[in-house]
Amino acid sequence: MLRSRKCHRLAMCVDLVPDDYVVLGKELADAAGNAIRPYFRRVGGVSTDFKSDQSPVTVADKGAEDAMRTILKNKAPDDHVVGEEFGTSESSTGSDYTWVLDPIDGTKAFITGKPTFGTLIGLMNGPKTVLGIIDQPISGERWIGVHGRGSTLNGKPVKIPEDVPTKLSAANLHATTPEMFTGIERMAFEELQAACKYTNFGSDCYAYALLAMGHVHIICEADMKPWDYTALVPVIEEAGGVITDWRGEQLGLESDGTVLAAVSADLHRQALELLQYSPRGLLLLREREERAGSGDDLNDINDELPSDLPTAVGASSMTGFGTAMQTSGSLSVKVEIRTINSRHFDLSVKSPRYLAAHEREISAHLRQELLRGKVMVTIEVKDSEMLVLPIRVDADAVRAAKHLIEDVVKASELDVTPTLDQILRFSEVFVKKENGNVDDGVYTLVEKVVRAAVNDLKLSRRREGYALQLDLLRRSKAILEICEEIELRLPDIVEREKANARNLAAELSENISIAKDVNLSSVSEQLMGGRVDVSEELVRLKSHISVFELSFFSTKQIGQKLNFLVQEMNREVSTISSKASDAAVSQLCVMIKEQIERIREQVQNIV
Predict the structure, then answer these.
(1) Which residues are registered as beta bridge partners of 375?
(2) d(CA 180, CA 245)
(3) Cα gap 226→81, rounded to integer Å
(4) Binding site for Mg(2+): which residues?
(5) Which residues bind Mg(2+) (predicted)?
(6) What is d(CA 181, CA 260) in angstroms, rounded to the nearest whole number?
(7) Would you kindly state where each structural domain of the chain is located, as residue ranges?
(8) Residue 606 phi, psi dihedral angles, 5° rounding
(9) Under the phi-then-psi rule, with left for phi > 0, alpha for psi from -120 to 50, and beta for the rest, what region is 329?
(10) Of 154, 164, 350, 403, which is the most buried if we count CB atoms within 10 A?
């Protein structure tokens, strides 16, 4: 039996993973594999039941977990155990260690004879996962990650190579199934899916093992349980990858079930921007509305702006300022970019004349990144050694000038030595510098600083756009609430008009001759009731608002789209006001138009 191990302060604990626990983890994997293999591709299939969530469970699942629990009961009785099939077994001794077991991750693959499933064994020391094992009992592949000791595949070190993609557009994306995403999570995943090169579904835990080797670049999943992800953490982190939840936080037993893994921190950050901030505007708005009763000021938007707000998703203002400065050797480059509203992309660049040849490249980059607005760029280049002057010394001309002066001295029979001042009087010693290495070096630095200034500007525009976004979402929510008031009044309005129609029909019937087979009262009632029924207009208005709100989840420019939707909303409200023929509804429509006008003004400043 292993000794009971406690570590009250994780940060001070030197031995997070005792060697005998690593050996024990391997023993658990061996036992699970022995229980699983006899049932793999078994003739006649394997007995399968279904849990309450309709996920399948086989006799192999239960047998493998039971085998692992038996070993733990004998060799680590003081430790806690969390398993997929038999729940949680808590120790009364207060051990800091918790084993998290998934006997078969990918039961559907196991049932259908595909060896992409695996046994997952995780060991937590307090809140941190310090040992992870991904075991594929059919192929004999076993990945082990131990905190501080690296990851291995069958005993050989595993490390993610350096030549992995650096951009989402070049990366592959994996997930077990699209069915695990619902609601806002699904919309956020679809944004990430659109940004990546291609998407593969399936492979379960095997995909995470492949990510630890650099073959898979990004894995994004939701609706996960602790036993689904705990063992994956050390394997990926010790191989050089990054794995967190969609908020960028450490995975643990209390995590929300979202998982994002990537082969590099940079790729993880890009994916996290799409996932974390796509729905943030709506969610933050809802949270703030819920806190309204506690006295929070809903108009104090800027107090809630994240300091690390990314630029990839959501509304961006056309107004902003960005600056960057960098020094390389004797060169110093400073770039300032200011933007204001404009329907189109309007660029003006103030830079040294010798950069004129590169102005088209600078313009193309700015147009691609900033899309719309009046853009004013100032580029300053200083060189302490004056190497950036657009001229160079012609050494041959200098020598020729010196010889010429010597010939003049010789011919004049004067005892004079040529001086530098005399040589410099020959304009030929200086020639216009061609596009050479110095200019290329200057532009390389300028290009780098321009890109940094653009990123700073985009963050500035995004922060202001984020404030606009929250205000616009608050106003769209107010419009929806007014629509609900109109809907509550609608039945009374329709019934009132029908009653008027019946009364009018009765008067007409008394004064004019009507065919016996014509029910004038019924016809009038239908006509008048339909005339004031604005249900269709309300449906269209709410549909426009829904599209309006979802537009903030996009990675593309949305200003023109929002402007069009505002026009459509205004048109529907005008129809409702004139069609309903009700003073109260007209007043409510005026309130909606006030909100729409505020929205229209704000939208003009969105890229």
Answers:
(1) 339, 347
(2) 15
(3) 12
(4) 84, 102, 104-105, 228
(5) 84, 102, 104-105, 228
(6) 13
(7) 391-432, 473-603
(8) -100, 135
(9) left
(10) 164
Nearest CA among 181, 202, 175 for reference residue 112: 202
Cα 197–Cα 201–Cα 203 angle in degrees, nearest 5: 120
For residue 185, CA distances in Å to 189, 230, 267 come to: 6, 21, 19
Structure tokens, 531: 């005339």
Contacts of 162 (CB under 8 A, 6+ apart): none
CB atoms within 10 A of CB 530: 11
Strand 80-83 relative to strand 87-89: parallel, antiparallel, unpaired?
Answer: antiparallel
Share above pLDDT 90 across residues of the chain, in percent, rounded to a whole number: 45
Amino acid making up residue 447: E
Amino acid present at 353: R
* Dihedral in degrees, nearest 10, Cα atoms 321, 282, 577, 593: -20
What 3-state DSSP class applies to 508? Answer: helix
pLDDT at 279 over 70: no
Asked whether 244 and 268 are in contact (CB, 8 A), the reply is: yes
- Burial (CB < 10 A; 0-12, 13-18, 19+), residue 46, is middle
Cβ atoms of 273 and 310 within 8 Å: the answer is: yes
Q: Tokens for 294? A: 């506690």
Q: Which two tokens stand for residue 448?
A: 């780098």
DSSP one-letter code for 221: E
First to last CA, the chain: 66
Map tokens 């003006």 to a residue: 348
Give the span between the Cα atoms of 329 and 312, in whole angstroms: 33
pLDDT digits (tens, 9 = 90+) for 182-213: 766 777 888 888 889 999 998 899 999 999 99
CA dist 136 and 204 (Å) reads 11
For the chain, the average pLDDT equals 83
Mean pLDDT of 391-413: 85
**Taking Cα atoms as reference points, which of 109, 155, 125 lies closest to residue 16?**
125
- pLDDT tens digit sequence for 545-599: 988 887 877 667 788 889 999 999 999 999 998 887 788 889 999 999 999 999 9
Q: How many whole angstroms separate alpha carbon 217 and alpha carbon 202? A: 15
Residue 276's alpha-carbon distances to 166, 210, 316, in angstroms, are 19, 25, 17
Residues comprising the binding site? 84, 102, 104-105, 228
Q: Cα–Cα distance between 28 and 120 in angstroms, integer?
A: 10
